[in-house]
Predict the structure.
Amino acid sequence: MSFGISTVTGGLAFKILREIYKTSWPGPSGVNITITGLSIKKDKLYILRVTQRNDPNNVWTMIGRVFINGDTNTAKYYIQYLVLDGTTINANRVNDTWVINEGLPGTFPAPTIAGAAVIYIFIDPGGYARIISIANMREGSSMKVVIAAIFYTVAVTDITSISYIASGSSGELVLYGGMP
């Protein structure tokens, strides 16, 4: 499957690079999925679609984090986020990379059943990786929306791997890459 974006300077089509479906994640201890063999120089932009689901009979804190080029040190990343949760609005900037966050100590209450995010990953003109995410957690009238921008503080010339580290009982990742 592929789709395209038309621009004044030309177009960019996207194709599925990887599909990872996990029907069983190891619960609160999480899962670490790393997609290698990438090159943002070639693909220009990555779009990662993520869904996570907890077993409703055994709900854990649900966290999903994105890392670039194998660097899982959250001190090297800044996240600026905006949370829309019913009539409550919360914003902050911290060192972290979460795109799905439900129940992380000091932030939001658990439990939750499901979460989903669309994540854009690219390198800015200064050579820094940027991650922009739009996510929602929970279901029905208790839905929560999170908009996040993540900045990786280490200059890079390419993005060759993307890691997703998460908790939950199942989920899927689909990575799209641009085709110039």
Q: What stands out?
A: Confidence is low (pLDDT under 50) at residues 1-9, 105-109. Residues 27-179 form a domain with the Jelly Rolls fold (CATH 2.60.120).
